[in-house]
Amino acid sequence: MLSRLFALTLFAAGAGLAIADDKPAPPNAEAVAAIKAVGGNVMSVAQNDPRLDVSLHLASADVTDELLAQVAKLDQTLWLNLSGTKITNAGLAQLANLKQLEKLHLEKTEIGDDGLAHLKGLSNLVYLNLYATKVTDAGLAHLHGLKNLKRVYVWQSGVTDAGIAALQKALPEVSIVGALDLKPVEPPMEKKEEEKKPEEKKAEEKKPEPKKEEAKPAEKKAEEKPAEEKKAEEAKK
Question: If pLDDT is split at 50, 70 and 90, which confidence band does 182 have?
Fold first, then answer.
């Protein structure tokens, strides 16, 4: 009996340790503190989800490659916003270990073709914003192997129609947003009266006017009688 109780106690203790081991590790405290120190933000993408949403686009201080070294310590990062920061092509090399990364904002940065070469290993990347960057067709070619990529923004970059077509061919399911071609909407034209057919026009032209009825002979004669005869007839009555 005692042996059974001892065995159950050991089993429960082992199960408790296993559950504790399954809990995800908390994000690197030093990295979180460094990001928040410049006005950035680190938060979970959802309740009970250890993956992180890291935002630096509203930072109060310049975000440079030095801070990217801290971001690289947060391997749970799912979404990363570096829009408008001072990062360089070389700095992106520090993001190569963020294997869970799905969304990356690089718009309005100095990132170019060499920077995109460091993203080739981010196989889970779904969204990439390259608006107003220095990326060209050569840089876009580095993305051809990212099979999960679904949306790329290249407006106001150095990318041409040829580069877009090449990426579209390599990744048929990707949606690539370039320059917005907005055409002015013309006001609706007033409908003109339908012109009548030639036959209808001729029929209207030939249609005779109705003739006035002529007075009957008897009525004419009555009207033509002189006034004296009329008086004589009235006297006989």
Answer: very low
